[in-house]
Amino acid sequence: MLKIDCPWCGPRAEVEFCCGGESHIQRPEPFDKVTDAEWASYLFYRQNPKGLHFERWVHKHGCRQWFNVARDTVTHEIKSVYLMADPKPDVQKLTPTGKQKETNK
Ligand SMILES: [Zn+2]
């Protein structure tokens, strides 16, 4: 069983959450120029990688908030948990706890 670190509630068991599928799906624009193939791709086609996957999760039996998870689909290791408005994290810079490493400039 996964232990997911909800950004609002802290670590909780997987049974409290539901996965909402792939995250960072962008609606094609402008809408009047979108082809049928582009629209079909947006609606129906999703990544199914063996390895790192960016997913939306909701804390259904908790705070009911949505957030993103970067998870390895082979090991189920959660690399990062981040807010819906945040960009994809650079997983090469992540520490084992899922936090971004501080870089000295
Ligand atoms: Zn929560």
Automatic annotation (TrEMBL):
It comes from the Bacteria. InterPro entries: SoxD, SoxD_sf. NCBIfam families: soxD. This is Sarcosine oxidase subunit delta. It comes from Kordiimonas pumila.
